[in-house]
Amino acid sequence: MLLPAIRRSRRPLRSRLASEGGAGLVRVCGGYSPDVVYARAGDPIRITFLREETASCSERVVFPAFGKSAMLPYGTSVVVELPPSPPGTYEFTCAMNMLRGRLVVEERR
Ligand SMILES: [Cu+2]
């Protein structure tokens, strides 16, 4: 977000910041896309999941560090709200810990 558009980055493609009005959209189909979501430290976090498959593996997403999980009905946007958090990387997974993604909370500048 803060990088000039012309600068090439090897980092994974960024979704919009999950802390900016819930714009972090993660599609769920055989995995999480994107599998890295960014938020700013100290801001409430909203991540929207849209599950585009019926495979039961992905029917629940779990945020272990937050003690939070959510069911993801097929084809329905589900918003997961997490509290403002310190900088760090927080994993999210399916209930079997097979599908994995990361929430990266970045220092405020
Ligand atoms: Cu699974």
UniProtKB/TrEMBL annotation:
- Name the Pfam families on file: Cupredoxin_1 (PF13473)
* Residue span(s) of domain EfeO-type cupredoxin-like: 30-105
The highest taxon in the source lineage is Bacteria
InterPro entries attached here?
Cupredoxin, EfeO_Cupredoxin
- Per its record, how is this protein called by name? Cupredoxin-like domain
